[in-house]
Amino acid sequence: MKTPHPLSRWVAVGVLVAMGLPPLARGRSLAWELPDGACGSQEAMLQAAQTGQAMVQRELARGMPWGDRSLNEYINRLGQNLARGSGSEQNFTFYVVYNPEVNAEAFPGGYVVINSGVIGLAESEGELASVLAHEIAHENSCDWRNTPRKGNLVELIALVPTMVFAGPAGIAIVAGSGWASTLARARFDRSDEQRADRLAVRYLLRAGYDPYAAPRFFQRLQAEQNRGRGQPGGLLATHPRVADRQRNLEAFIPTLPPAECAPHDDTEFLRMRRSVRNYDEIYSAVMGANLSGRDATAPTLSRRPPADGRP
Questions:
Q1: Rounded to 5, what percent of the chain is helix, strand, coil?
Q2: Number of domains composing the chain
Q3: 8 A C-beta contact, residue 137 and residue 119
Q4: Cβ-contact 133, 204 below 8 angstroms
Q5: Residue 230, exposed/middle/buried by CB under 10 A (0-12, 13-18, 19+)?
Q6: Integer Cα distance of 84 and 105 in angstroms
Q7: What 3-state DSSP class applies to 115?
């Protein structure tokens, strides 16, 4: 085996230091440690948080932030509970925007934006939690450093003072550049998605949810795609395909420790979903659009046969 020249080793270390990422962080394996969102030095994390905040403000300025405080508080409470259970060192902030597209995005610094379409499609709090857990997993794994947008991220960090201190005007200036749109649309690669899916079901287990809520949500998402309602963006744009992700999780979950999940009271979730679907009905009537979950059927329930064989 060829031994690398000592100089090449120093060059590799220098590249990692320049990125603000400790050399060992990329080598962490789920076999011995779950990622915790420590993506670099304190200074690097501060830069990431400033960058993410600017990116989120840009997204909120382009979209329609949800105005009902109760839904925002509910999503934040649910997300914070999952984040604590994941063992993350990140500080998380969750935002809800009204958008019927089934999508959620994680931004550097622990910022997560979830579309109302996710809430409208989910049939239980566990399914909704699976989407939030997936985005938390991306943050904890520092996946935003590994995407093709990494080169642009360096430029964006350099422009953070413009966006942060110049307010809306600064954000508008930066948003006018072509690379900013490409950055916002960048997707994680196949391995990142698979890892995030597997971490998400671990987080569901820790929070007491049924881990099979994740593949059930993928099943609903795939059904939307089959109906022709799936948009080219959103969660449907990730790789591998939704059906493959569902099957992969169904094969992975039995390898985890037995679930000790308690029945969750979905009363609050159903109330929040009703508020989303009420807005959807107005949107559908005005726009003439078929929205996710409008004719969704409840999942088939299985009942364990009694020990004495009676029905």
A1: 60, 5, 35
A2: 1
A3: no
A4: yes
A5: buried
A6: 19
A7: strand
Predicted confidence (pLDDT) per residue in 180-209, tens digit? 444 444 455 677 888 999 999 999 999 999
Helix axes 125-140, 267-287, angle to 10 degrees: 90
Among the listed residues 223, 218, 216, 228, the one whose alpha carbon sits nearest the alpha carbon of residue 290 = 228
129 found inside a domain: yes
Q: Which two tokens stand for residue 60?
A: 């909120």
| Whole-model pTM over 0.70 | yes
User: pLDDT by residue (tens digit) across 59-112?
Assistant: 898 889 998 899 999 999 999 999 999 999 999 999 999 998 899 999 999 999
Q: Which amino acid is at 184?
A: A
Inside any domain, residue 134: yes
* DSSP β-ladder status, 104-107 and 111-115: antiparallel
Whether residue 299 is contained in a domain is answered as no
- Residue given tokens 């099943």 in the structure block: 219
Output the six-digit token pair for 186: 């960048």
Could you tell me how many residues make up the chain?
311
Q: Which amino acid is at 311?
A: P
Task: Decide if 127 is inside a domain.
Answer: yes
- Print the domain residue range for 112: 36-275
